[in-house]
Amino acid sequence: MFGSIRFFAVLLGLCVLSLATAADDSAPVRIGILTTKQDGRGGAIGGSAAKRIVQQAVADFGGTVAGRPVQVIESDHQNRPKVGALIARHWLQHGKVDVILDVPNARVQEAVQPVVRELRGLMMVNGVGYTPPKSCGSHIVVWTYDLTAMSNFALAALKEEGFEALTVLNLEPSSGKEPPLNDIARTVHFARFEALTPSGKVGGKDKKMKAAQAAPLLPPDMQPLRADESLLVVGGRPSTLRKYVPQLRAEIGQEKLPQIVCQACAGLLKEPDVLALAQKIYFVLPYDAASDGLIGFVTRYKTENNGQVPTMSQIGLYAATQAYLRAVSQLGKPQPAALVGLTLRQTPQQDAVFGQSAITAAGIRRGTHYLYAYDTADGTLEELARQDVSAAAAGEGCIADAVGATKP
User: Fold this and answer.
1) What confidence category does residue 267 fall into, taking pLDDT thresholds of 50, 70 and 90?
2) Does the reported pTM lie above 0.90?
3) Nearest in space to 153 (alpha carbons), one of 278, 258, 283
């Protein structure tokens, strides 16, 4: 009799376990978009379009993944690191999301990172100009692009093109000490290399860049740029550059410079003041501007968003969403976030927009970089060079995480 009771107890337990497993297997995949709807730094990058882009990526994937529905929620970090960290902590502690996407603001990203690692979540970063982590782990993926790698490629390619001199205008925020000139700029040995810093000082508790007004943008003790010289703009988001463009134009004179190497200008090619700076504007993209996949995405986006062109980060958000869904589909049943992150690292990536790429052990996506020259007179875009760095991704080292994030 007691044996029969034990048998039925075990059978009942197996049934309950089976039901629980079935429920877990059908649980929705929850995507959290941590963005900002404010105008300016973050809003110009992600903004209110972020949720629509993720929903479109989910719909294009088929609407479900591994037989599970997909839920998309969003929250506004207001460009405040503490707010972003609190939202991420609430989401992860209470099981509100399985992955955090977007996070357009480098300082917010830096505040959210330790929270994601501590709570063993997963975050896929798409913000522009973000410095990727060097630590190992399965919790952070930098998808859209790595500014340092792209800048290294651009300057090396320009040197091959015959550039003999570049004057550098550094728009990175500074606390009044020596400006943090990009390391990649110091390693390029042109015939002449001069570093310029805006006269506007960094002020306010959050160290936001303030545009110079009465003070000259270029130091008075330096010779003005000549019409035959080339300018490299280091750092600065499109919104920051936009503030300085009128003053820069006034100081370099009415004649266009022959070239300006300006990553931020890639998002400002329709603005007359930017087009008046130089005859050609050079910048790097992490995808082929002429690919059918990109053209199709941009065309549809413009149709659905009153003719607006998507930013590089918005394009990356679409591709990152689908990369995440591919990893979840590959695993099949619900798995810990770290295991999904590990799967992303161990699986070669292929999509219609970014093409072939791979993710390093530190979580940095490596693909093909393209250097373009935009002719401001006729509006043509010419590809000058490309570099595929995906093959080297597996060999890149990283520093072990203190919290042991390498284990799922």
Assistant:
1) confident
2) no
3) 283
